[in-house]
Amino acid sequence: MTAGIDFRKIIMTVVMAIFGILFLMPFIWMISASLKIEEEVLTFPIQWIPDTWNAVANYKEVWTGSMPFSLLYWNSIKVTVLTTFTSVFVSCLAAYGFAKINFKGRDVLFIIVLATYMIPPQTLLVTQFLLYRWVGLYDTHAGLVLLNSFSVFGTFMLRQFYLGISNEIIESARMDGAGHFRIFFNIALPLVRPAIATYAILRFIWTWNDFQYPLIFLRSEALYTIQLGVQSFADEHGSVYSLMMAASVSAIVPLLIIFIIGQKHVIEGIQLGGVKG
């Protein structure tokens, strides 16, 4: 029986390894293409290791060419970090309120908030555009930050974790004279840290990869994020695949760094959610 179980595990491991390699192949090809001269990019069979290394010239062209990638990076980092911090903070406060504060109409209000998640964001673009033009937030990074700072998904996700905190802990702190803000910052927040880290990483990735909102709500090239910059770079160098792959690799490096740093917290958050479920 034991030998049979081990054999099945070996087969499953091999199958999962094959699927993992297949999923990684486009990413590996992108990196490989960014290191080659243009003539070797589309050769068949694929040359994973370039015969002629051209990495310095490709990446130099990307970073010192017509599109200022250093400025694009700064814009994206500023917008993404501010959006992530604001969204996490607002979602944590809202989730705690819906989970641990009893007030009249709380459940009905939460259902209404949750129902807004079913509204496609595209249906609100015209209204948001007119409103932003009216209040002066159009073509600003502040407006871009506000667009993603209020998340129904983040509120719902974190509320589920707050519900797992024992009410006795909250009541004990309240009997000792602690108010809601002190309970929130000193007790509730540390207990859901893995969930907060998970949502923060997801929000960072979503905001960094966002193309729709910057395309509509930014007009000045000096305010462009990395996604708009890559698109503009593609319009200029779309037929040069080696340069396009170098630009794409440059655009995803921060995401890889964030995920590598935060993957432990993501796994803890998933495990914690699985236990609670």
Automatic annotation (TrEMBL):
The record's annotation in PROSITE patterns points to: ABC_TM1 (PS50928)
Whether Coiled coil counts among this entry's keywords is no
What's a Pfam family in this record?
BPD_transp_1
Report the residue ranges that make up the ABC transmembrane type-1 domain in this protein. Answer: 73-262
Q: How does it sit in the membrane?
A: Multi-pass membrane protein
Where is it localised? Cell membrane
What InterPro entries does this protein map onto?
MetI-like, MetI-like_sf
User: Can you cite a GO biological process for this protein?
Assistant: transmembrane transport
Stored Gene3D superfamilies: MetI-like (1.10.3720.10)
Which terms are listed as keywords in the entry?
Cell membrane, Membrane, Transmembrane, Transmembrane helix, Transport
TM ranges are 12-32, 72-96, 108-131, 143-162, 183-206, 240-261
Task: Respond yes or no to whether keyword Protein biosynthesis is given for this record.
Answer: no
Q: Which GO terms describe its cellular component?
A: plasma membrane
Family indicated by similarity:
Belongs to the binding-protein-dependent transport system permease family.
Question: Which PANTHER family does its entry note?
Answer: ABC TRANSPORTER PERMEASE PROTEIN MG189-RELATED (PTHR43744:SF12), ABC TRANSPORTER PERMEASE PROTEIN MG189-RELATED-RELATED (PTHR43744)
Q: What is this protein called?
A: Carbohydrate ABC transporter membrane protein 2 (CUT1 family)
Provide the organism lineage as a comma list: Bacteria, Bacillati, Bacillota, Bacilli, Bacillales
